[in-house]
């Protein structure tokens, strides 16, 4: 079988190489003044741990069991120590995640519970990953509004009250059909047409407002579509670019829900997680903005399939367009201008399309061969 023959080739290669698996605040920090964004009771604590008091930040990741959180926890634990990074979600963690470091239940809609976690664990950095993504959000607007907007308000208030450094990811989805699409700069018209996009523009603006108004150390990157091998996407428009690898390896066939010419910005997960750590560690005076585009590559489904066919010539791709996802993709950036991130804090991606494809095939090919061997 050609698919298996190519898989074996890919797996052999993989066994030989290692798979990749400006503004200063106008006010003093909120914890030092008597006014806070939320009318907290007088017993509320503003005693956050300052960075000089600890060797490492104490990090909480919300929504940590999705496509990105487990990988980010692994990276941050390597850097700051296993027990200094707490993953949280409302879902039950799989065994390997539960045994790899601290995990805690946290519903971002439960403000008191969130505050208790931050206080009891002396959290200093908060990475806020909980969200409903673009396609899932359109299927459940009320829940998306609640998680992505009400949840964010809880996060912002807790971060401001406890002097946390707060990272919130935004997305290419924060732009819309009236934005310049090729390329899309950091600052331009943002009129997205999805609840996901609207909630992310809201997050960008609220975070920046809290930064200027209360001195909140808010940091935000607009991620492209993220491609990963060991975690599945949670219901977005760019999901096809992950699924194609799984289907190609399993069956040699893939049915794509976007048109072959739909060009979108994309990034391999290792680049995305490294960018997140880099912007979190960047000295404040290097950040001329608080929300940055980051990018690595742009491609269409057809171009991705062509790159895959270099390794799997028999791959068959058919198209069965999902009108909801297609309308979203047609309104999103085709290419992303991340020159400010590159200039300010030295952002540089490692993976272009050929490396991405090779790395994904290596990883998934080895996994499949190992599963067959067991
Ligand atoms: N994966 C991607 O391609 C991109 C992701 N992003 C952003 O990065 C962040 C992480 O993305 P993914 O890991 O892909 O998302 P995901 O959809 O895979 O995971 C989101 C997680 O949030 C959790 N969650 C939902 N409601 C919650 C609640 N009430 N309380 C606590 N947790 C809750 C879910 O259980 C899920 O584990 C999101 O904010 C997303 O908007 C931005 C651009 C691209
Ligand atoms: C690009 C994103 O924000 C996400 N992957 C989605 O497609 O919704």
From TrEMBL:
Molecular-function GO terms, alphabetical: L-threonine 3-dehydrogenase activity
GO annotation (BP), single: L-threonine catabolic process
Residue ranges constituting the NAD-dependent epimerase/dehydratase domain according to the UniProt record: 59-294
Top EC class of this enzyme: oxidoreductase
Catalytic function, reaction form: L-threonine + NAD(+) = (2S)-2-amino-3-oxobutanoate + NADH + H(+)
EC number in record: 1.1.1.103
Pathway of action: Amino-acid degradation; L-threonine degradation via oxydo-reductase pathway; glycine from L-threonine: step 1/2
PANTHER family: L-THREONINE 3-DEHYDROGENASE, L-THREONINE 3-DEHYDROGENASE, MITOCHONDRIAL
Job description of the protein: Catalyzes the NAD(+)-dependent oxidation of L-threonine to 2-amino-3-ketobutyrate, mediating L-threonine catabolism.
Family affiliation: Belongs to the NAD(P)-dependent epimerase/dehydratase family.
Name this polypeptide is given: L-threonine 3-dehydrogenase, mitochondrial
The organism of origin for this protein: Xiphophorus maculatus
């Amino acid at each position: 079988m050609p698919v298996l023959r190519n898989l074996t080739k890919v797996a052999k290669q993989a066994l030989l190489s290692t798979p990749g698996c400006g503004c200063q605040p106008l006010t003093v920090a909120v914890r030092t003044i008597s006014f806070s964004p939320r009318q907290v009771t007088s017993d509320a604590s503003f005693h956050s741990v300052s960075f000089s008091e600890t060797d490492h930040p104490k990090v909480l990741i919300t929504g940590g069991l999705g496509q990105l959180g487990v990988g980010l926890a692994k990276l941050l634990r390597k850097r700051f120590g296993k027990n200094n990074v707490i993953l949280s979600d409302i879902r039950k963690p799989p065994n390997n995640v539960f045994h790899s470091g601290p995990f805690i239940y946290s519903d971002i809609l439960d403000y008191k519970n969130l505050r208790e976690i931050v206080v009891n664990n002396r959290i200093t950095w908060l990475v806020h990953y909980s969200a409903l993504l673009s396609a899932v959000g359109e299927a459940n607007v009320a829940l998306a509004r609640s998680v992505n907007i009400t949840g964010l308000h809880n996060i912002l208030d807790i971060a401001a009250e406890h002097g946390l450094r707060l990272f919130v990811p935004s997305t290419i989805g924060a732009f819309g059909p009236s934005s310049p699409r090729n390329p899309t700069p950091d600052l331009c018209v943002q009129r997205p047409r999805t609840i996901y996009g609207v909630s992310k523009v809201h997050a960008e603006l609220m975070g920046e407002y809290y930064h200027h108004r209360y001195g909140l150390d808010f940091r935000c990157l607009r991620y492209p579509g993220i491609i990963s091998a060991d975690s599945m996407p949670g219901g977005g428009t760019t999901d096809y670019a992950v699924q194609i690898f799984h289907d190609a390896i399993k069956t040699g066939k893939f049915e794509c829900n976007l048109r072959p010419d739909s060009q979108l910005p994309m990034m391999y997960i290792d680049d995305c997680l490294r960018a997140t750590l880099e912007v979190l560690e960047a000295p404040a005076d290097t950040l001329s903005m608080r929300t940055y585009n980051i990018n690595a590559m742009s491609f269409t489904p057809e171009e991705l399939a062509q790159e895959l066919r270099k390794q799997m010539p028999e791959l068959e791709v058919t198209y069965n367009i999902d009108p909801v996802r297609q309308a979203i993709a047609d309104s999103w950036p085709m290419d992303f201008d991340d020159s400010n991130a590159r200039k300010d804090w030295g952002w540089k991606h490692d993976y272009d399309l050929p490396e991405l494809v090779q790395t994904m095939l290596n990883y998934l090919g080895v996994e499949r061969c190992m599963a067959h061997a067991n």
